[in-house]
Amino acid sequence: MIKKTGKGKELLLIILVGLSIVALWCGSGWYINRFIDSNYRGIVGDMFGAVNALFSGLAFAGLIYTITVQSKELKLQRESIDMQTQELSLQRKVIEMQTNELKQQHVETARSANQLQMQQKLMNYQIVLTTVNDLLKLKNEAIHNINTSDGHTQVTNRFHAWNRSNNYNDEQVLGELYKYKEVCFSTLQFVLENELSLKQLSNLKQIVKINFTKVERSTLTTLAKQETDEHRVYRIQLLESFDMVE
């Protein structure tokens, strides 16, 4: 069995009232023509005039009632719209708060990324500095191991002798000099190949330059000029980068 909704009941009631009015109107006409003498029908008609006034008044009352009900419905609709507007306003505020939180998280993430990047750069610089110190130790060990057959005992004298003439026949001396040369240029190349800030690179260049005496710089310049064309240009450029050309 199908249940009738509220709107269906109201429609049925309106139909029934309408049919009742039509039936009453038809019945009254039939009754007057059937049972009322024609001489008295005018009087009866006047009586129905009062009934018409009554129905007119009821119709007007119904109209007032309908207007009242519609006003209440409009008021309820307006209140519902106001509530929806407030809900939308609250939702907008919540979205704004979430947006601000996301912005703050983005700022914090960017700050953390910058801090991590700085830490990585600092760690990289420390690693490079440690490696450079180890290479400089190898360079100093190579100097210590250089022995000439003509009795030179001082490093300065050894390099002066090398600069004057590199016609040593002592394979040990030549081997140590070659080792020394390669360690020095490898150190310079290592510093330039690493990703360092300008300040870090400048500091490392100063550290490296301080660890080379003038005689060493002169010797490296001489050794670089004795290289083949390609290596000569490159190694002289390395020395120029560290302001070590003598």
How would you portray this structure in words?
The chain starts with 5 loop residues before the first helix and ends in a 5-residue tail after the last helix. It is mainly alpha-helical. It has a domain of 128 residues.
Distance between the termini: 112 Å
Q: Residue ranges: pLDDT <50 for 5 or more in a row?
A: 148-153
Write down the overall mean pLDDT: 78
Query: What radius of gyration results from the CA coordinates?
Result: 55 Å
- Return the string of H and E elements: HHHHHHH
Biggest sheet details: none
Q: How much of the sequence is in beta strands? A: under 5%
Kindly state the number of beta strands. 0
Q: What is the overall silhouette?
A: rod-shaped
Helical residue percent?
Answer: over 70%
- The helix-and-strand class reads mainly alpha
Total helical elements: 7
Characterize this entry briefly:
The chain is mainly α. The protein has helices at 6-35, 41-145, 155-164, 171-193, 198-210, 214-225, 229-241.
SSE layout:
Blueprint: H1 6-35, H2 41-145, H3 155-164, H4 171-193, H5 198-210, H6 214-225, H7 229-241
Keywords for this structure?
246 residues, rod-shaped, mainly alpha, 7 helices
